[in-house]
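Protein record
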Amino acid sequence: MRYELYYWPGIQGRGEYVRLALEEAGADYADVARSERGMAAMMRMMEVGKGTPPFAPPFLKAGKLVVGQTANILLYLGPRLGLAPKPEEGKLWVHQLQLTVADLVLEIHDTHHPLGPSLYYEDQRGPAKKRSEEFWNERVPKYLGYFENLLKNNGGSYLTGRRPTYVDLSLFQIVEGLRYAFPKRMKTFERNIPGLIGLHDRVAARPNIKAYLGSDRRIAFNEDGIFRHYKELDL
């Protein structure tokens, strides 16, 4: 199967969680919007008409099937790429964890856009500073503490045991992104999550992920994506 991933070409964003799964599995895929006329193709796929058009990127085309929403894409890909448990309850558990990651991703985005995405960051600096403070005081300990405890109680190298799933790859991305967006805050907080930092390092050392991170396929973090670095928010 050759997969087609559709996502905005200049940012990692939510599409990166899908890219990491495809890269870890060594899957044959095309990052369509980064190719010539790829953006036009992506926009045509979203036109409302017959069928089941996706609302927004990311979405994945596998043969005639089109699957939208990051967690839904990973629910589909996980068993096919060997990145999800085989039993149904295991698949649902990993999907549940990915949905929790999706909630965290939204809260990360809202640190710099608390009043909504239609306004520029410069129009909401004050509320962003307040939201970022609350995010680090209340939300980060809750989310990352939850995953840290899961790792500790599981006793394995990854969240579900000795083999990685797509949610382990997603947690790697969370750590990477928070290190970029809030380097000072994250450096201080990392002492509270040694298990997650170990998980991050194991994922980064996996051969396919290591090769991907060193390639031009990995888009650099920037201030157009979900993880954005603003010095005034990283106090």
DSSP finds nine helices and four strands in the chain. The first helix runs from residue 15 to 24. The longest strand covers residues 2-6. Strands lie at 2-6, 28-31, 59-62, 65-68.
